[in-house]
């Protein structure tokens, strides 16, 4: 646990016209982002924070609520306020809710998803490790097995696992870190019009992507990804693409996953 007196000594509240709770938020956020308050450590008590900042309990409580909403801390009954480890769930949920308030359609999300994968993922042909390739192969094997068993929830999970591992295979850690919350949004557009029909899941298209990566051929990988997305231009997908994002049948499932911080 953090040494509370030591942490309090590092607090340097600014004297300006900023809203009082925002001053508290900014300073505690600075301590967390700088590593002076680490994941799992407790914040000073409410009374200690009031004294350190020269503010009321309501100001401290307002600040803690905001920090909690940002995913930086969590309030545990009987234990106090704990610094949360870095996670994607808060960012993912905020992004999903932001998109759901728009007039975007499933087709809009698919188009953006295709642009990201076709533009970025071909470099996996250059940078994927043997472990990356084995992981993608395992994803396809599990994907195929799930289809053979008509285990449709697992089919969905393994399909998404392949696309997440495809991003990871670029071996650009910062890119994966930034785009990982976006993968929750991908769920909204990754389920075909009829998820209980095997032909819609295109296992062969995913195998062609892996084959191109194994061949270390960037352009072949790019073409395989383009070919994979051509199914979205078929009549079966026409109606689905016009559905507004907030009407997508998978919305509640995606929000549930995001809130639990589940990766695909």
Features:
mainly alpha; Four Helix Bundle (Hemerythrin (Met), subunit A); 264 residues; Arc Repressor Mutant, subunit A; 63% helix; elongated
What does this structure look like?
- The chain is mainly alpha-helical and 264 residues long.
- It folds into two domains: 4-83, Arc Repressor Mutant, subunit A (Orthogonal Bundle), CATH 1.10.10.10; 89-260, GntR ligand-binding domain-like (Four Helix Bundle (Hemerythrin (Met), subunit A), Up-down Bundle), CATH 1.20.120.530.
- Helix content is 63%, strand content 3%.
- The chain contains 14 helices and two strands.
- A two-stranded antiparallel sheet has the order 1-2.
- Strand 1 (73-76) and strand 2 (80-83) form a beta hairpin.
- Helix 5 packs antiparallel against helix 14 (251-260) and helix 8 (130-148) runs antiparallel to helix 9 (152-168).
- The longest helix is centred in the middle third of the chain and has 19 residues, at 130-148.
Write the layout of secondary structure elements.
Blueprint: H1 4-9, H2 20-33, H3 46-53, H4 57-69, E1 73-76, E2 80-83, H5 89-100, H6 106-120, H7 124-127, H8 130-148, H9 152-168, H10 173-190, H11 203-214, H12 218-229, H13 235-241, H14 251-260
Antiparallel strand pairs: 1-2
Helix pairs in contact: 2-4, 3-4, 5-10, 5-14, 6-10, 6-12, 8-9, 8-11, 9-10, 10-14, 11-12
